[in-house]
Design brief:
About 30% of the residues lie in helices and about 35% in strands. The chain has about 210 residues and is α+β, with helices and mostly antiparallel strands.
C-alpha cells in the first residue's frame, strides 16, 4: 500500500502555454522535492469530461498532509499563483490510499472510474475482475483518505472554491488506447453516478 494524490481538471484555453510551462519546468520538480513523493504522471484526456488528469505517488498518503508538503501549498510561487487563479478549472483533488490489484508492466493509457459517493470498493474490484478480451496490464484501487476538517491551503483558496472530492477510484492501465476507450460504456452501465474517463500519458517525472 502507498499514497496517491489524484487531480482531474480542465484548463483555461487562453493560457495553455503558461500551464504547460508551469507544470513541466517548475511544478512537477517542486512537488517531487518533497520527501517521499517519488513519481508524478500527467495525462491528457482522450474521452473524458476533464482535459487533464495528474497523479503524484508517495510512500504513504500521510505525505500529502506532512509539514513539508503543506509548506509548498501555503507558499505558492508567482507562476503557481497565476495558474491557480486563472488557469485551473473544474477541479477534483483527492488524497488516496493506493493498493495494486495486479500487473507489473505499465502502459501509456488509462481509464479512471471515480466515485463521488461512498460505495463498497469491492464493487469496483469486481468490475476489474470481470474484464475480458482486453489487453489490460495493470490496475489499482484507490480509497480516499481525506481529512474532513482540514484547513484549506493557500493554493486551494486561490482557485476560488473548495476542491471537489472522490471517495474511491478504480485505475486501469493499458498499452492500447482503444482498450481504455472501449470500456467506458460498460463502466457507465455499472457505475452510472461515477466520473469515467480515458486518458493518455504525456509526461512522467521520477
Amino acid at each position: 500500500m502507498s499514497g496517491l494524490l489524484g487531480i482531474w481538471n480542465n484548463a483555461n484555453q487562453k493560457f495553455l502555454h503558461d500551464y504547460e510551462d508551469w507544470y513541466n519546468n517548475e511544478h512537477l520538480f517542486e512537488r517531487l522535492s518533497v520527501p517521499n513523493i517519488n513519481v508524478a504522471r500527467r495525462f491528457q484526456g482522450l474521452k473524458s469530461n476533464y482535459n487533464y488528469f495528474t497523479s503524484y505517488e508517495a510512500k504513504t498518503y500521510k505525505t500529502f498532509f506532512s509539514e513539508e508538503y503543506l509548506k509548498k501549498l501555503n507558499k505558492p510561487t508567482k507562476k503557481t499563483k497565476f495558474v491557480m487563479e486563472f488557469v485551473f478549472q473544474d477541479m477534483f483533488r483527492t488524497v488516496f490510499k493506493k493498493t495494486i490489484l495486479k500487473g507489473s508492466v505499465r502502459g501509456a493509457f488509462c481509464l479512471t472510474i471515480s466515485v463521488k459517493d461512498k460505495i463498497e470498493v469491492e464493487h469496483l474490484i469486481n468490475f476489474e475482475k470481470k474484464i475480458k478480451n482486453i489487453s489490460q496490464v495493470y490496475s489499482e484501487i484507490w480509497e480516499s483518505k481525506e481529512i474532513n476538517d482540514y484547513k484549506i491551503s493557500k493554493e486551494e483558496s486561490l482557485r476560488g472554491r473548495e476542491d471537489k472530492k472522490f471517495s474511491s477510484c478504480l485505475y486501469l492501465e493499458f498499452t492500447n488506447g482503444n482498450d481504455a476507450i472501449s470500456l467506458i460504456d460498460d463502466a457507465k452501465r455499472n457505475f452510472n453516478e461515477a466520473e469515467i474517463g480515458a486518458y493518455q500519458l504525456i509526461s512522467t517525472l521520477t
